[in-house]
Amino acid sequence: MKVTPLCKSFLYFINKNEEEQGVCQFLNHVITCYSDLIIHNQPQLAAHELIKIVDIICSTYETEKYDDIIHEKSIDLYSVEKCNQLFNTIFEIYTEVVKGSRKQIITDNKFK
């Protein structure tokens, strides 16, 4: 399956840095689905995958960095370009969250 370069970078980062195997596998699956939808020019469906990515991360880590990110941007998620911009923002925040000194895994994580 072909994956966009940005998704490939995010997947690589997750595989190198995510400590929770279940979270890693689920993020890999959802990001691959997102990439496939983007490749097939389905930005509205891809936007749903973006919400899933944020939900997974917020269910795994205590962070407020994603608060309102989807709601602020969701009005504009009808183009591949806008989806990819939000995807990049999600990636940037994830790198801060997973590498940050305040990394706190929630104990009742449903993705374990």
Summarize, please.
This protein has 112 residues and is mainly α. The chain has five helices and no strands. The model has no long low-confidence stretch (mean pLDDT 84).
Overview of the molecule:
By secondary structure, the protein is mainly α. It has one domain (5-99). The protein has helices at residues 5-17, 21-39, 43-60, 69-73, 80-99. Helix 2 (21-39) runs antiparallel to helix 3 (43-60) and helix 3 runs parallel beside helix 5 (80-99). It is globular and about 35 Å long. The model has no long low-confidence stretch (mean pLDDT 84).
Topology:
Layout: H1 5-17, H2 21-39, H3 43-60, H4 69-73, H5 80-99
Question: Can you tag this structure with a few keywords?
Answer:
112 residues, mainly alpha
Taken in chain order, the helices and strands follow as: HHHHH
Quantity of strands, as a count: 0
Mean pLDDT: 84
Number of DSSP helical runs? 5
Count the domains.
1
Strand content: under 5%
Largest sheet: none
Q: What spatial form do the alpha-carbon principal axes imply? A: globular
**In angstroms, what is the radius of gyration?**
13 Å
Oligomer: single chain
What structural category do the secondary elements indicate? mainly alpha
Give the end-to-end Cα distance, rounded to a whole number of Å. 26 Å
